Amino acid sequence: MKIALVHELLTMKGGAERVLRILTEMFPDAPIYTLLYDEKKLGDWFPKERIRTSTLQKFARFSSNHHYYLPWFPQAIEQWDFSEFDLVISSSSAFAHGIITNGKPKHLCYVHSPARYLWDRTHDVLQQNSKGFLGPLKRWYLSHLFHRLRIWDAESADRPDMLLAASREVERRIELYWRRESTVVYPPVENYWFESSPCHDKNYFLIVSTLVPYKRIEIAIKACNQLKLPLKIAGEGPHRKKLERLSGPTIEFLGYKEHPELKNLYTHATATIVPGEEDFGLVPLESMACGTPVIAYRKGGVLETILEGKTGTFFDDQNSLMNVLRSFDRTHFQPASCKEHAKSFSRSHFEHAIQSAIDALQ
User: Fold this and answer.
1) Lower CB count within 10 Å: N or C terminus of the chain?
2) What are phi and psi of 205, to 5 degrees?
3) Strand 271-274 relative to strand 205-208, pairing
4) pLDDT, tens digit, for every residue of 185-204?
């Protein structure tokens, strides 16, 4: 079969890009279509010779902020011609599901989530953009833009031949917003993370995340500020400077870390904190694979990956996070139990599910 891969944006490394990386290894001859590509940030994961960008790429030299191009994403994603292929596998967090194939080739869409800023987080995003002198104008503009994009999003959701959902929570959103059925296929945790050895020198909490508002990292920062607990934050993103201004002397920003350093951070942490609502969340699984428990916000995909009292625990708001951190006892969680549970989300399970979905489309 001649296969193509589609992913909206290759501009930063995150969980969705890790899933795409596995798909590129499963199908090493497949070209990768993307709206925008940042070779400096993603070139080591997705080499330039495999990339086919959209017409918007020529504007990327003027600004790396992809939000400026949001109104043109639907049109750009519809311009690709896939008639030379037998199968297209899209990895969609907002727009990739909207490619046009007209039944030839078949279209298998892996949905990380319907665009959250268009649906369940619309009012939060509008509220965040209402501040300042130009706030009312920005809110008016985004409100009209989101309305137009929601119509396109819902209509284009009928285009894929089959939908795979990254979690039961995503499956629920697909049914709610798109009125379509989907099959849950959990993202995999790589075998690499299980190779770490136990460590007993655990004296800090850890966050591994892109630094964007919906991750709610400020909740953990404020809690650790008040309790004077050490917190290390690994990751980059546009929210970093604002988070740094909130941080006290016990908070350390590490920037983006590659696998060897990240594995060491997981292994030596008291626990990994997941303060925001995740569609699924590979970070909790990576942490558990390294033998480290997770403290997570009780909502979203983490409810499907964390066993409360065995591989981690939950909190409901900032006050309850403080209570959890204040009383957290690392010795109540066994590294072997964390690792064993993470194995049920293995790469082999993921690859088998993808191949089964492809077979079903034939």
Assistant:
1) C
2) -95, 160
3) parallel
4) 999 988 888 886 666 567 89
